[in-house]
Amino acid sequence: MTDKTLRLGTRRSRLAMAQSGQVAEAVSQVTGRPVELVEITTYGDTSREQLAQIGGTGVFVTALRDALLKGEVDFAVHSLKDLPTTQPDELVVAAVPVREDPRDVIVARDALKFTDLPSGARIGTGSPRRMAQLNAYARSHGLDIVTVPIRGNVDTRIGFVRSGELDAVVLAAAGLNRIGRGDEVTDFLSVDTVLPAPGQGALAIECTAGNADLVATLAELDDPFTRIAVTAERSLLAALEAGCSAPVGALADLLADGQIVKEMRLRAVVGTTDGTRMVQLSTTGPVPETHDGAMALGRELAAEMLAQGAAGLMGERAH
Question: Which residues is 284 bridged to in the sheet?
């Protein structure tokens, strides 16, 4: 029985297939068992509506979770930033592997950097979070930009730049790196300019809670520092009662002294999409030793943000 093929549920997009393929290889090495990819179409893949309108939360995840619960696949790989913050009891995130680069990047015409874009430059993004921060940065630095809502896969988005429809698009560094297209990046957006989505760059490997052997095996791929960081980020998101399409950026950094990790800094931002009103805060403290400690860190920072009026900047709050 031990050499029985494991079935990995994945979305069909090129990026999902690439990251699932990488996980499949790692799981195969750990288990000595072959892993086959089972392609599953999700509502978020077929709907052409803006993510903010279809609710964002869970649109890429529900079909994969249904397949897990029905036993059609043994485990699934998600982009962590797509996972709703409430975890169903029947399922467990068995591993959060080492995180890719969490930053956002620009792919612009003529290899331009963000700050070199011409006045009135049209920048495409489907993310209210990116719009809010880009507009706020532009406003405070005297830049004139227009953010244009777009959807579609990496090819579609970069295609808007190649065709001249847009001057630039904003994408996640991790996604481009995973599909081998990092060389198309014309500028990395510093996290001081644009904070990523909570969990950006990280993957979640999920299986049923009842499959103790598989949970234990997949746990070998877990990176404790990545897990602590994304737990704090997602706890903040949950405490703000914001869905994954809300204009919330958050990043937990581990601050090291030489080789020794000493502290964790959690930074977060909430803003209106036009960038006129922003609440941006950070907190630094000892690296949480436990899941509960990481959760508490996120909740505390969220409470401070809510006290400064963050709720009023998020539009509809997700429930």
Answer: 265
